[in-house]
Every structure is written in C-alpha cells, then in structure tokens.
Amino acid sequence: MGDNRLKPLVLSEAERLTLQGWARRRTTAQGLASRARIVLACAEGGSNMAVAGGLRIHRKTVARRRSRFLADRLDGLSDEPRPGAPRTITDAQVEEVVVRPLEAAPEGATHWSKRELARQVGISPAGVLRIWRAFGLQPWRTQDFKISPDPLLIDKIRDVVGLYLAPPAGAAVFAVDEKPQIQAVERSTPVLPMLPGTPERRSFDYIRHGTVDLFAALNTATGKVIGRLSARHRAIDFRNFLDEIDRQTEPGLAVHVICDNLSTRKAPAVHRWLLAHPRFVLHFTPTYASWINQVERWFAELQRCCLDRGVFCSLDALTAALERWIKVWNDNARPFQWTKSADQIVDRICRYCGRISKPAR
User: Fold this and answer.
1) Which of 101, 136, 133, 141 is nearest to 117 (CA)?
2) What is the mean pLDDT of the chain?
C-alpha cells in the first residue's frame, strides 16, 4: 500500500466549500482553520515543501495533514482525543451558556452576569466566562447608536466628504461649530499633584463660576482654528462669528462653511448676511451626524488637553486658558486626515441598517 503523503489531493465541490468556510474563521476554532488552509493549499498542487514555505509551518505538519485528509477526508481534520481529565462541561451546557444571553434576559434584570448564569446552568463562573470569550459574547457591554433620519443623508455625506477629499481650487474650507456652556470649574480643595505610584487627585465636588460658549472654525487644509468666545450662541452671535471668519480669510478666496442644522444657522439675520457676502457657502451636515464635522475632533482635543483637568477660579481664567490653548494649537497646527470616501461611509451605514432591520428574535 502506497504512502498517502505522495498521492495527489483532489477535493469535491462540497469539500472545497466546507474547507473555505473553515479557513475564514478568525475568533474561534483557529486550529481547524489552519488545517483547512493547509488542505486547500495542497489541493492546488503544491508539494509539501512549497505549502510549508507559503504558510510558514513545518514540512512534517503539512505531510501529516495531507495524509490524514486522504485517509479520512474532512473527519481527519478534527481534533484527536487528548490525554487528561475528562470534560466537566457538556455540549448541552455550552449551548445553554451561549443561547440564553442571546434569547432572553434573567427575571428582574436586564442582562446576564457570569455568576447568575453559572448558577442556572450548574457550572463555575470561570467556565461561563471562557465560553463567552470563545464565542465573542459580552453581555455586560452596551453601545449607543443613532441612524440619521435626514432624507438628504446620502447627498449631504457626498457633499461634505467631497470638500474634505477634493476641496475646490481657490477656496478655503472651514468646519464650524460651537461648544456651548463650557464651565469655569474650581475644585473645592486644591488638586494634589501626581507622585510616583500615585495619580493626580482632585475632589469630586466643585464650585462653578459661570459658563462661556466657544465658536470655532477649523481650516481643514491647514488645521488652524479661528475661535471666538461668546456669552451666548444666538443667531446674531453666529453671524458675528461669520464676520470674524470673513476678516481672517484672504479676500480672493471663496469660503465653504461646514456646519450643523441648528436653527441659528438658518435664521433671517444669517440669511441676510449670506446674501451680502456671496463668497460664503454653507454646507449642512446630516441630522444627528456631527461625527462628519471635523471640528468635533478638534473639540475632543480641547476637552482632553485643556478642560477635563483644568481648574478655573473665574470666568476670566477660563477665557484666558481657552485663548491660550487655541494660540498654542495654531502655532503647531496640523490638519486632520480624512480617509473614508463617501461610498465607504454609505456602504457601512447600509450594512448596519440591514443588521438592525432584521426581525426581532
């Protein structure tokens, strides 16, 4: 009887489809996926040495998998019995640990904990956690989402992303928004500085000394920011901020302003101002889609670097800190790089809508 390792390996269509499905696995059954890739490579006619080099594994591993597949076909790729203590968790218990969190919540609670489910199934909490990890389940986590109901969603995405990826010649593009009611917060006790082995410590209670609104316009090409502080964010304040952008932008350039759908953007005072300044064009982001406005990314940097750990004993101190941080940013300005095309964004939204639109279990 000949050596199976020397025989050509030919797959039926059903075997090929099954092996391709196994080979695509990433989070579970990594060993089975690796064996499937070895058999598929062998079926293409490669020698054991060539397959081993392509997959970066030992030649003897390829020979062993080829031989076992030729002898037992798909059954030859399954795990062989191993020495050691017998399993204490049955297949039925594994199924219950996986299915229960997917189909129903425990009585009187919103989600399963590992200890509660362990009591119900009759295994240890550590066993429940191992099974959840194997199947990618995380019942303790939750995420928020909001799909924009804007009827012009796709058109607005293409408009805004087009300004990021292919800005018009002879024009300046600004991403504009305001950060309202920034609080001048003073901690009730002095902040204790960081020490080796001890993080900075601050009291949880605070004294509030008022609020201020910040209008910001991020130049998407240079990364520089035009900022203006205001006590309020009315339509007239937005109009005055447009005046500030007009003063700080070269006269010969057209100005494209990306902003949200707040009512102050469409007030009569702003409309009259736009008629008097024809070089300005407003581009509105989709409803509930502030993520597409690049200035929001700049606000996140402002919050992280200046406001989260800032202590301001007065409104003047907060104002001075904001102006100083904007100046420091502009001295080392860098633009944010937009990488997703409009088609990629729309495709991802469509895929997500398809997932959440399926019938409930």
Assistant:
1) 101
2) 86
